[in-house]
Amino acid sequence: MERLQKVIAHAGIASRRKAEQLIISGKVKVNGKIVKELGVKVSPNDKIEVEDIPIQKEEPVYYLFYKPREVISAVADDKNRKVVIDFFPHEERRIFPIGRLDYHTSGLLLLTNDGEFANLLMHPKYEIEKEYIAKINGIPSRDELKKLETGVILEDGKTAPAKAKIISIDKKKGTSIVKLIIHEGKNRQVRRMFEALGYKVKKLKRERYAFLDLGNLKPGEYRELKPHEVKRLRQLAVTQHS
User: Fold this and answer.
1) Rounded CA gap, 78 and 83, in Å?
2) Residues 72, 174 within the same domain
């Protein structure tokens, strides 16, 4: 048994907060009856309708997407900016991004309609490795790289141990390219880690997520994950949880 708003969110119809609003406003039915209480729990056998449309048990789908810069990691945007779903015009299933990359960050993003799978990968206990390439103003010292690796104090706590390496330096322009591997998913974490040391990130790209990379994809392109990749991600998460 799961809370009704959680089931609606898992189906990719709306965020959990929006799902709560839909329930309160009387737009959700369970087995033909309008439900307005938020504490209601439902089973897989219950028939749930949102605005008179039944929640479908869709075939699960899993995408690896190369998110371009200046695209929102969401299914909709109230400012009418481009969102990741716009790149999947022929996909009729209700897909949504697993986690997010901020507006100005490009790179690897996973999308699915499988809420359970998404929750598994986003669970705070699951330390999934994410590799970023950052172009920054300035050239960090060895001590500063060490600080990135041991943890930087941010307003929402100290970051977990990371791996940092300078890839290249442009002394003339006073910039450098740094590879940073983190396990957490704090909001705008990589940018804030560099900012904490006084460096502004000019460009940021996520190159890798666990064992997955972008391969030959170009910005805006995607591919479906292979069954063995989905299985491996699931196994990684389950291993971390146990």
Assistant:
1) 10
2) no
User: What's the structural domain count of the chain?
Assistant: 3
Same domain membership, residue 223 and residue 121: yes
CA-CA-CA-CA torsion for 214, 182, 122, 25, nearest 10 degrees? -100
Contacts of 170 (CB under 8 A, 6+ apart): 176
- Which CATH number belongs to the domain containing residue 160 in this structure? 3.30.70.1560
105 class by beta-carbon count within 10 Å (0-12 exposed, 13-18 middle, 19+ buried): buried
User: Residue 76 is part of which domain span?
Assistant: 62-125+212-241
Across 66-85, b (16+ Cβ under 10 Å) vs e yields bbbeebbbebeeeeeeeebb
Cα–Cα distance between 79 and 115 in angstroms, integer? 26
- Give this prediction's pTM: 0.79
- 102 has catalytic annotation: yes
DSSP state of 15: -
Q: Which residues pair with 105 in a beta bridge?
A: 204
Its sign, for the CA torsion 225, 226, 229, 231, is: positive
CA distance 147 to 154: 12
Of 102, 114, 170, 213, the catalytic one is: 102
What pLDDT, on the 0 to 100 scale, is given for residue 57?
65
Q: Is the pLDDT of residue 12 over 70?
A: no
DSSP letters of 78-94? TT---BGGGG-TT--S-
CATH number (domain holding residue 78): 3.30.70.580
The residue ranking higher by pLDDT, 183 or 163, is 163
